């Protein structure tokens, strides 16, 4: 970064602080906002408490970070060394990624009992996918002749892995780790929401219950700072270790393989479904968990399909889902639209980008969900707060992805436009926007589970409506059929949403960016 | 010179009715019959895209033939691969960007399960004119320097069969001449069967004992010129009448093998 740009960035951040303090003072009493000075005061008075809680959460997040990333690396290596496993590995990974943490948390809590188990597991679940996806790409991102070199000495896939793939994938690994660091902190905090004894998540719950504005803001600020530090720290390490910049891969590219017809796809889907159900069953059986709370697939089937009260159960679920959809759909669409629009604005007005970019990059690493309590405090428990939170959750990754995509526009093509003296609009429509589309869709896909996470967290912590609240209620009433059913239904819907976006993506990219779909 | 215990005799190479057609239906080679004597240097020349690289890859066992077979020293290429008995310098230098020049050369020894030999590496780095660049990473080298590093890497394992795919493409004229003098000496001293793909007729005649000329795709052999010039061949040789005669013979064969307007040119 040049000195000038760094200066502009610092200016942007300073301006934001002043604005924040000003807003906090101006609306004292009207909105529940604590400014930087309030936070410092609170922190001074409760330093010991905060440090202990932060230590606890950081410890859990770190363990989850390590476990989740090791799992991702192991899965990626398995998929690489044993290609038939590839589609199952990525499919199962997506399913696990779509599990609603809000319901998984309480389930893990009953499975583990007291202790840090659920927090660590949720942190691991929150990170492994964002590492796995770049790894699956990175392990194959080397020119064929490097593998020919290895083969020309009579060596096989294992040597390829050690001497070529492992190295070639480092930029991708770091890209994943960088995104994973804040995500681990978020996972640990959500885990602590579910009845932990210590940690930042526990303090959050207490502060919200007590409507303690200063405490809520202080916790969210600390969480944000930790995330920014972790994100930029890993970025700094990456710059030292790598010869090139970390790759930017936000999501698995849409499948580019040969089309093998609907039967092949159906068979793969059936295999995946069978695997999921089999693993679910086997895990619970092997752990010998009582079916009172560890529901098997057939328990859920019974509760939702064959039991006498199944239709009542389904109705409860449906009305909760309808309530949630009311918030999540507008928030999701607004977040996508704003993200793309602001990215385009930054492209057209470079001065805005110089000031706004560092703020956006800093905020993007903030696990937005940890700030959910703030938005609820500030905007109330109604629709506005929830929709805003979902939109914000979707906005940042979309914005950063689109910005990155816009910059991908090849310079030579722009030169061609320059030679025709084409205007900004023509360049935007014909060059930049098509270049942005793949990144936009990648972000849109990843934002599906993210927005469901956001909406369920708010519903659970604050609004008491929708499927998030249903999960919380079922957990506290020990209605485990409903809780497990909610996991199945919500992840199923997440995956459907993800698949629907992939389908749209494939159609649009085949028109606007055919080369991005690969050979 | 001390006998190298790892080293087997240089193998002969036989292509028997060799064909290659890619999955997309591109017919690249059709019925190539070829026997290359052990310990000799052969140059392949032919129009761009005719299938020279493909033939080299088939010989190296990196590609499976659609018809016919390849034998190296009387056995399929996989046997040679197992012993790390061959080495190839690829058309694209394919240096690993995270390894230095020395690191890339050392990697070949590691892949061939041979002990790292510092002085041998130093000698080769000096031979290809990269002295002082041994700790530099490929990104900081010019295209020609990268190619020379790739040549050194291919030679460091002392393979019985050495395959060089346009190894001097980006090397400047002076260095090229120097290499054309130094490399054959080493191949002879080490008794190596060498196959060299090149677009330069002069280079082919200068370096080899035999030049095979291919037609445009699908490649057939349209010329087979024995180069019976004695060695060493100093750069000044190029203007000698016997050299010129051989070079003309190769050029004519090349023109015969070209499709399209050149066909008519050659016929006149
Ligand atoms: N893996 C592949 N799949 C499909 N076609 C291929 C493949 N490799 C090469 N070809 C085709 O085979 C033909 C010969 O390619 P090859 O690289 O062997 O040519 P070449 O003689 O080495 O050309 P050049 O002198 O330009 O290097 C080309 O038409 C190329 O498109
Ligand atoms: Mg070639």
Written description of the protein model:
The complex is a heterodimer of chains A (519) and B (268). Chain A has 519 residues and is mainly α. Chain A is 80% helix and 0% strand. Chain A has helices at residues 3-26, 36-45, 47-81, 86-98, 101-112, 117-138, 144-151, 157-168, 170-193, 200-209, 213-241, 261-286, 297-306, 310-348, 350-364, 372-379, 383-407, 411-419, 424-463, 466-476, 480-512. In chain A, α3 (47-81) packs across α10. By secondary structure, chain B is an alpha/beta fold. Chain B has nine helices and nine strands. In chain B, α4 (118-127) crosses α5. The longest helix of chain B is centred in the C-terminal third of the chain and has 17 residues, at 173-189. Residues 261-268 of chain B have low confidence and may be disordered. The chains are: A mainly alpha (519), B alpha/beta (268). Chain A binds chain B through residues 143, 145-146, 148-155, 159, 163-164, 167, 170, 243-244, and chain B through 57, 60, 62, 80-84, 86-88, 90, 92, 94, 96-98, 107-108, 110-112, 137, 139, 157. Residues 22, 24, 26, 28, 46, 48-54, 91, 217 of chain B line the site of adenosine-5'-triphosphate.
Number of strands of chain B: 9
Q: Unreliable runs of chain A, pLDDT <50, ≥5 residues?
A: 515-519
- Structural classification of chain B: alpha/beta
Ends apart, CA distance between termini of chain A: 36 Å
- H/I helix tally of chain A: 21
Biggest interface between chains: A-B, 18 and 25 residues
- Poorly predicted runs of chain B are 261-268
| Rg of chain B, Å, rounded | 18 Å
Order of helices and strands of chain A: HHHHHHHHHHHHHHHHHHHHH
Total number of strands of chain A: 0
Average pLDDT for all residues of chain B: 87
Question: In terms of structural class, how would the helical and strand content of chain A be classed?
Answer: mainly alpha
Largest sheet of chain B: 6 strands, mixed
Strand order within the widest sheet of chain B? 5-6-7-3-8-9
Multimeric status of the protein: heterodimer
